[in-house]
Recover the amino acids of this structure.
């Protein structure tokens, strides 16, 4: 379980966090392109999309797991939100605060473990906390006018569950798969595999 | 791709434009009635020419918002918490009252009013200028701003790469047809390949940037100056004032419904 | 200024068992022009990275010493070194050309009032054809590399390192970059160049240093002497030694039935309407300048893009054992289901990594046969045969992304062959390959052609055309008369 001892970000840390964010933004664009065009009802119906909410929160956990420095989760999620807004122009300038709030949950999870632990349980915790922060933002800002019992609470619970699974477990599995390709050789996550 | 270079508001400092958009959007989030956002949208459409943006350009960039607005209306109709007022339609789960319609209109308009300033800013702001302004006017870390900017340059390359990856998979005999699980797997496989390629490219980019002294630790000089002057401050203040005016109209008409409280 | 001294230098990257480079004793004086040669894997890029101070202490293990003007390259000496890498797109930082050159100057703290004059000077020195505001995304590969060179030169380095700067370029772009290097590098700048295509690089250098694969320096001296003494060994190791040409492999029998015919095939704005035909037992080369639509044509022939005008007609010989269901099945490869397409036409992309789908080499090779419905024992024997034929046996369990350039190229061709298509469409198969892989590819493709397959290769490489192609067609740029 290798960790980074120096909290200062190297150039490669900054660039790769930004690249993860940018690539995530492109994946979200492709997702809308592929799914919304064909699955009309799915795109139309916000509650159905909630099951996949975790996908939009994945950059936060992934950034944290790969970069392993303070601020990684927050930075990656915020930049990903901005890029996806630029590619889709959906939520305008508010994506910046929203992205910050979403990234904050994961950031708190890694911070609570003092940026030293990055195993699966921590990843799930980061996913769950980021889901909670995203759900809270939506609960108060976007969903305030909907019924508490039939919408707001299920929405929040599904968001957290989706995030724990897709963002938490998903980012952990993704990091291991990426390490296997050798792409993360300059990061702690990449050193955890056997020498080739 | 960015427009409005000569227009009086379009050429303002990028950070000023961003702050103005944030202030305006935040104010509009704060209310749930249809009146304030309607006034706000009128204001936003009116200032469009001052930003040098044509209405056609706006329509092109903003039409996905209309789809989202429809989604909001549908969700409100099905899940509204407050179904006060006269009932207009009651058929199974669809219980539409005047209260529901007002709420739906308010939320949909709010969404548009919140999103439009951002669309304006993104359409009229060059990313390099924004990065420069963040560094020079807001004292953001140059390494992060330029780093993000360098990665952002890869966006068109990555979208092209997505097309290539999809074609390559088809050439390998991998396609998904109608089966949703298969389509999901294909999507995930393509997304993974995109991510690997992007990270490797990013690693080479980071090396090249270091080779040109990016991590030298010396204080950076700036080649392109970004000034924040009185006109820029006036833009931010003006945005706040106009947002306040929209809210005031709603308060005076008695339709104001604050988000909190 | 710009002197290089290596004593017993070696480097091992973290996470690797083998040393990337080892046992290097080398001294380069100020103003010398050195060509660094060696087989793939000999550590040339690592050596350049070490000279540029880019091997961070925590990213590996060092043996011996390396000094620039007596200083550690990771420290103050970094300011004296400029480096240009192989891939243009991963070197350019900013969206506008002038801003990109200014990037390095900003990093070094050059006063703002001096920056733009130095930018203009650097752009002029490399013969950059556009102004400062030119978007970097709109540049061709050769223009991007010249811009990267300008970025390095603007910092006035005493030591200039070029790591295969023309490997990813077409011949025209490569020539322009070499001209820019020749004209822009002044007398007292030390130059170290890594380049596969030796003949073209020779006018730029006065000394050749040959690295040994296992470690150490095999030869060091004037070009003529080194090639005379080591020419054959070099050619065998993959270096393009002047005077060691490859004998052509032309078809010995007449071509068979047509496999695919393009009738007025075009896709605006990338490809003008084109006619061509590929027969069984024939290798066709498609040539043309940048912008003529060669890659687009390859994608159209491969059934991966829908034609804008005209059509692609598949010949009966292409359709194989599963008989066509009707006349509609003969045309339109772009409408075929992917498993059907893979059985008939194999496409090999310019970048092998675009086509990797699984986590091991074995699974990559097995994917095609499995997807096209072969029983597992057949899959296994197909994979074993291909592993042997393309010398990939020891890599069967490796992740495809960890393969070297040549190995990845071999794997991408092997995966296209795994479904036994009769037609093979390749986009720039020899791009960036050293001589050894190049020769293997020619042998492999010639063998397939002699077995009755059809081969279409889109290529910039005149040697490849001379060695393999039975016929050649040249595309004109869209809009040209």
């Amino acid at each position: 379980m290798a960790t980074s001892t120096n909290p200062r970000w190297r150039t490669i840390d900054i660039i790769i966090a930004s690249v993860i964010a940018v690539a995530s933004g492109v994946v979200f664009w492709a997702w809308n392109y592929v799914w919304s065009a064909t699955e009309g009802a799915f795109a139309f119906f916000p509650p159905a999309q909630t099951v996949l909410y975790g996908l939009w929160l994945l950059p936060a956990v992934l950034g944290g797991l790969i970069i392993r420095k303070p601020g990684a989760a927050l930075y990656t999620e915020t930049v990903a939100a901005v890029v996806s807004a630029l590619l889709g122009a959906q939520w305008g300038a508010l994506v910046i605060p929203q992205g910050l709030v979403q990234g904050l949950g994961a950031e708190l999870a890694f911070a609570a473990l003092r940026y030293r632990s990055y195993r699966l349980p921590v990843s799930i915790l980061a996913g769950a906390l980021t889901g909670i922060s995203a759900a809270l933002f939506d609960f108060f800002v976007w969903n305030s006018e909907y019924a508490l019992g039939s919408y707001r609470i299920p929405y929040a619970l599904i968001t957290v569950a989706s995030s724990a699974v897709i963002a938490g477990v998903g980012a952990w599995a993704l990091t291991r798969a990426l390490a296997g390709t050798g792409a993360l050789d300059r990061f702690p996550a990449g050193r955890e595999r056997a020498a080739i | 791709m960015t427009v409005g270079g000569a227009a009086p508001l379009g050429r303002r400092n990028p950070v000023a434009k961003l702050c103005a958009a944030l202030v305006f959007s935040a104010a509009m989030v704060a209310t749930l009635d249809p009146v304030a956002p309607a006034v706000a949208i009128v204001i936003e459409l009116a200032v469009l020419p001052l930003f040098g943006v044509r209405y056609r350009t706006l329509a092109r960039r903003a039409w996905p918002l209309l789809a989202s607005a429809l989604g909001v209306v549908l969700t409100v109709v099905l899940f509204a918490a407050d179904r006060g007022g006269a009932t207009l339609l009651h058929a199974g789960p669809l219980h539409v009252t005047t209260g529901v319609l007002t709420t739906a209109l308010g939320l949909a308009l709010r969404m548009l009013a919140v999103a439009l300033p951002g669309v304006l800013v993104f359409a009229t702001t060059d990313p390099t200028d924004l990065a420069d302004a963040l560094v020079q006017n807001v004292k953001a870390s140059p390494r992060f701003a330029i780093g993000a900017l360098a990665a952002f340059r890869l966006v068109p390359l990555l979208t092209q790469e997505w097309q290539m990856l999809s074609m390559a998979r088809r050439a390998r005999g991998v396609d998904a047809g109608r089966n949703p699980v298969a389509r999901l797997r294909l999507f995930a496989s393509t997304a993974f390949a995109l991510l690997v390629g992007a990270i490797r490219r990013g690693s080479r980019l980071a090396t090249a940037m270091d080779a040109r002294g990016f991590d030298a630790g010396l204080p950076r000089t700036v080649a392109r100056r970004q000034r924040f002057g009185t006109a820029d401050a006036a833009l931010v203040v003006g945005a706040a004032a106009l947002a306040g005016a929209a809210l005031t109209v709603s308060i005076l008409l008695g339709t104001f419904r604050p988000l909190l409280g | 200024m710009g002197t290089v001294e290596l004593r017993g230098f070696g480097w091992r990257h973290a996470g690797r068992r083998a040393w990337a480079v080892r046992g290097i004793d080398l001294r380069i004086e100020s103003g010398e022009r050195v060509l660094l040669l060696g087989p793939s894997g000999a550590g040339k890029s690592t050596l350049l990275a070490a000279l540029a101070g880019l091997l961070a202490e925590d990213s590996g293990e060092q043996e011996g010493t390396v000094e620039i003007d007596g200083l550690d390259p990771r420290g103050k000496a970094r300011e004296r070194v400029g480096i240009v890498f192989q891939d243009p797109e991963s070197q350019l930082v900013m969206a506008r050309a002038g801003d990109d050159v200014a990037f390095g100057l900003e990093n070094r703290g050059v006063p703002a009032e001096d920056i733009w004059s130095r930018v203009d000077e650097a752009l002029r020195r490399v013969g950059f054809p556009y102004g400062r505001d030119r978007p970097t995304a709109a540049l061709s590969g050769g223009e991007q590399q010249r811009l990267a060179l300008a970025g390095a030169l603007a910092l006035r380095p005493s030591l200039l390192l070029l790591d295969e700067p023309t490997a990813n370029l077409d011949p025209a772009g490569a020539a322009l970059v070499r001209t820019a290097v020749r004209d822009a590098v002044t007398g007292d700048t030390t130059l170290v160049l890594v380049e596969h295509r030796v003949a073209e690089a020779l006018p730029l250098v006065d000394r050749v240093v040959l690295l040994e694969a296992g470690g150490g320096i095999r030869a060091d001296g004037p070009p003529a002497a080194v090639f005379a003494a080591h020419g054959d060994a070099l050619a065998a190791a993959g270096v393009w030694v002047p005077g060691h040409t490859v004998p052509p492999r032309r078809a010995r029998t007449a071509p068979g039935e047509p496999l695919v015919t393009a009738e007025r095939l075009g896709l605006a704005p990338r490809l003008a309407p084109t006619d061509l035909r590929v027969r069984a037992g024939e290798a066709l080369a498609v040539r043309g300048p940048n912008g003529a639509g060669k890659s687009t044509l390859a994608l159209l022939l491969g059934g991966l893009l829908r034609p804008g005008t005209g059509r692609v007609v598949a010949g009966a010989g292409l359709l194989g054992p599963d008989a066509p269901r009707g006349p509609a099945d003969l045309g339109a490869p772009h409408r075929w289901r992917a498993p059907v397409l893979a059985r008939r036409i194999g496409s090999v992309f310019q970048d092998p990594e675009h086509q990797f789908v699984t986590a091991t080499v074995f699974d990559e090779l097995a994917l095609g046969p499995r997807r096209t419905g072969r029983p597992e024992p057949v899959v296994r024997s197909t994979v074993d045969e291909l592993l042997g034929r393309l010398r990939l046996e020891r890599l069967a369990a490796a992740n495809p992304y960890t393969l070297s350039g040549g190995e990845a190229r071999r794997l991408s061709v092997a995966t296209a062959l795994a479904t036994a298509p009769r037609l093979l469409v390749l986009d720039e198969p020899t791009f960036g390959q050293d001589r050894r892989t190049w020769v293997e590819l020619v042998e492999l493709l010639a063998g397939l052609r002699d077995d009755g397959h059809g081969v279409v290769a889109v290529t910039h490489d005149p040697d490849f055309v001379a060695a393999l192609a039975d016929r050649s067609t040249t595309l004109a740029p869209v809009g040209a008369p």
Notes: The two ends of chain C are 53 Å apart (CA to CA).
